[in-house]
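Question: what's this shape?

___
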Amino acid sequence: MKLYSWNVNGLRAASAKPTFWPWFKTTSADLIAFQETKARPEQLESTLTEPNGYQSFFSWPTIKKGYSGVVVYSRTNPLNVVRELPDEYFAKEGRLLHLEMDKFHFLNIYFPNGQSSEDRLDYKMGYFESFLSYAQYLRKTKPVVVCGDFNIAHREIDLAHPDMFREVSGFLDHERAFLTLMIKKGYIDAFRHLNGDLEAQYTWWSYRAGERARNDGWRIDYFFVSAELEPMLTRAWHEPHVTGSDHCPIGIELNL
């Protein structure tokens, strides 16, 4: 199976870019997960709600229009679909889609950004705790695949200028410690597991002039798979050449 994840930073805006549909139609993906869609299904053309060969599943916020939102396009019918975490406090912003597939649970998540205030940073960390509890619960029945924009660079190698951002949300010690905890709990960072400590491997770049061209970026988009899937994980990659968003698509392949 080939799986993709991409924070499109507005699905309508991204799909209007000349790179979007050629990329979408040539992915040959079984599952495509987008984050930060910023749209409900009724706001979209049928090409985005019923793309050829795929079923679509959306989650959108109940508290604010034009904000957050995720979608998964699947070639096969999932056994079950869950929108949002079980904890109601974290179930209002359209950040999660859980598709139960035949052989694994698939979670597409747009994790909160903590840069605007201390309250949002606290919300972000609470969301991570709630998510991990949910993932561990699901893992009792079958393996788990988690993808999305985590809004955290895990290690110094995961951003271009680590010394400049040690006091900035996205690279705070306790945020990074959460990803370390995930790994200790048995979740594998697919890209690092298969590609090692390759440098300058980023998935997000500021829109400030020249930052993408200079590759002054952050790796904040991930696929994590629970350890049971490690023997099936055959490939993990980034596609920084694909434009249309301030993030780039990332992918994995699982030999199931």
The two ends are 7 Å apart (CA to CA). Residues 2-254 form a domain with the Deoxyribonuclease I; Chain A fold (CATH 3.60.10.10). The chain has one domain: 2-254. The mean pLDDT is 96.
